[in-house]
Specification:
8 helices; mainly alpha; flat; 330 residues; single chain; 74% helix; disordered C terminus
Length: 330
């Protein structure tokens, strides 16, 4: 990237900007999808891919949210297709081009899952898979936006202080746990178990619910997951601020992750206290995606900034060993 001509650099910036736009559109798609669930409009349009046998149905009631979701999904499909064609022509790194192709394939799978969800009237497994794929697609789009940034290849390498659990490992674990928490939340939403425990932060006035069924179990699991996510995020943020405060590329996503976590906890509480009002409930879904994407950003940057020198040193060591072996053999 450092040896590119000004024209090539400008092309790379254009691709990056479009990747950011596509990632932003994917985030909006998650918000609109959350609106469908929050308003109970998932089956407002009972057929697919048409809507009441038409391309454009009457915009009334829940149809506005469900058909709006389809329009948003179609927009993301088109943007991803353009991004794939653009990357194929302008992106020199083969692995990045393959990543964009994977994103396009994933959004097609996502669209098919959405259609199956409608045609089979919201089967729980498919509905949760649809939500899981949406989050995976968003993470993939964010990754592409990060990798296409012209500054990605020019970030300086930094040594990570020795520790029992490296920051890269900690960041991966935090991101994985956040993703699992989102899946539990999706399961809870599609089971309509969001208010089965009506109070917060207690559960029926107790720390642990005094009685159980499958709905209470899923709801309480989501609350316990929130505690685990909070602990992991705080651990990760504190580690970054203690050991790499001067590295802006790590400090900013770490602080952003902390702020989003606080907002997410508040939205979760408001969702319960308001009886699942549409805006806070949907915002809770969207901000959850933001927490996941920010944790992923921190993870990718940590691997790039902290892990690359170790890999380079390992490659150099292997090359030196081969040279020595050849000299000894000779």
């Amino acid at each position: 990237m450092m040896n590119q001509s000004p024209t090539e650099v400008e092309k790379a910036r254009g691709l990056h900007r479009f990747a950011v736009l596509t990632a932003g559109a994917t985030f909006c798609l998650i918000f609109v999808g959350g609106l469908v669930t929050s308003t109970g409009s998932a089956l407002a349009v009972p057929d697919w891919p048409l809507a009441f046998g038409k391309l454009i149905p009457a915009w009334q009631g829940g149809i506005r949210f469900e058909f709006g979701h389809r329009l948003a999904a179609g927009t993301v499909v088109v943007l991803t297709l353009v991004l794939m064609a653009w990357a194929w022509r302008a992106e020199p790194r083969r692995w990045v081009r393959k990543l964009v192709m994977l994103a396009f394939g994933l959004i097609i799978v996502q669209a098919v899952l959405g259609g199956i969800t409608v045609l089979f009237e919201l089967p729980l497994a498919i509905a949760v898979t649809h939500a899981a794929t949406a989050q995976a697609l968003f993470c993939l789009m964010v990754s592409i936006a990060i990798f296409t940034n012209p500054r990605w290849e020019t970030r300086p390498h930094v040594d990570d202080p020795p520790s029992r659990i490296p920051l890269t490992t900690l960041a991966v674990a935090t991101t994985a746990i956040i993703y699992m928490q989102i899946l539990v939340g999706a399961l809870m939403r599609h089971m309509s178990a969001g208010l089965v425990i009506p109070d917060f932060p207690l559960s029926f006035g107790y720390v642990i619910p005094p009685y159980w069924n499958e709905f209470i179990a899923v709801n309480f699991a989501h609350r316990c997951g929130a505690v685990v996510v909070t602990a992991m995020v705080l651990w990760t943020v504190v580690r970054v601020l203690r050991t790499h405060r001067e590295v802006v590329a790590l400090r900013r996503p770490a602080l952003g992750l902390f702020i989003l976590l606080v907002v997410q906890i508040c939205l979760g509480a408001i969702t319960i206290w308001s009886g699942r009002m549409v805006i806070p409930t949907t915002s809770h879904v969207a901000v959850g995606a933001g927490v996941l994407a920010t944790s992923l950003t921190l993870t990718l940057r940590a691997y790039h900034i902290l892990g690359a020198p170790n890999r380079a040193h390992a490659i150099e060591s292997r090359a030196s060993s081969r040279v020595i072996e050849r000299q000894v053999t000779a």
